[in-house]
Design goal:
Distance between the termini: 57 Å
Number of strands: 0
Number of helices: 6
Strand content: under 5%
Radius of gyration: 18 Å
Order of helices and strands: HHHHHH
Helix content: 55-70%
């Protein structure tokens, strides 16, 4: 094959990889604090972090809504962020690290500011609903 054909194949492969690559939740695009640093790190498959069952998801969303209804404005995003909190817990991060990370993850446009008490309530909701 000539050089032009290889270039076209290369571009096609790159385009296919870009289009089909799995993205993280849309925190990075939104520019939220959760997109920065370890607070926004993705939860990788096989990391030991459970995915909530339908019943656990319902309980989690109900508990988050009790903290602030804005936390569940985008339910899939809320669950994704809760799994990141669970990841911190499962990897033995201290309460001093988990709680600020939780605030950074959940603060954003729907909930501009969270108190320490609200962050603690979110951590408790994650633990109670699906992350023992």
């Amino acid at each position: 094959m000539d050089r032009k054909t290889w270039i076209i194949i290369g571009i096609a492969v790159l385009a296919l990889v870009w289009v089909t690559s799995p993205g993280d939740d849309d925190d990075a695009a939104a520019g939220t604090p959760a997109a920065k640093g370890s607070a926004g790190a993705s939860v990788k498959p096989g990391s030991g972090v459970p995915t909530p069952t339908a019943q656990q998801r319902t309980a989690l969303l109900r508990a988050l809504k009790a903290v602030d209804a804005g936390l569940v404005a985008k339910e899939d995003r809320a669950v994704s962020r809760a799994r990141k909190v669970c990841n911190d817990i499962k990897h033995g991060k201290s309460k001093k690290a988990v709680q600020p990370n939780t605030k950074a993850r959940f603060e954003g446009s729907a909930v501009p500011k969270l108190t320490d008490e609200q962050a603690a309530a979110i951590v408790a909701a994650v633990k109670k609903s699906f992350c023992p």
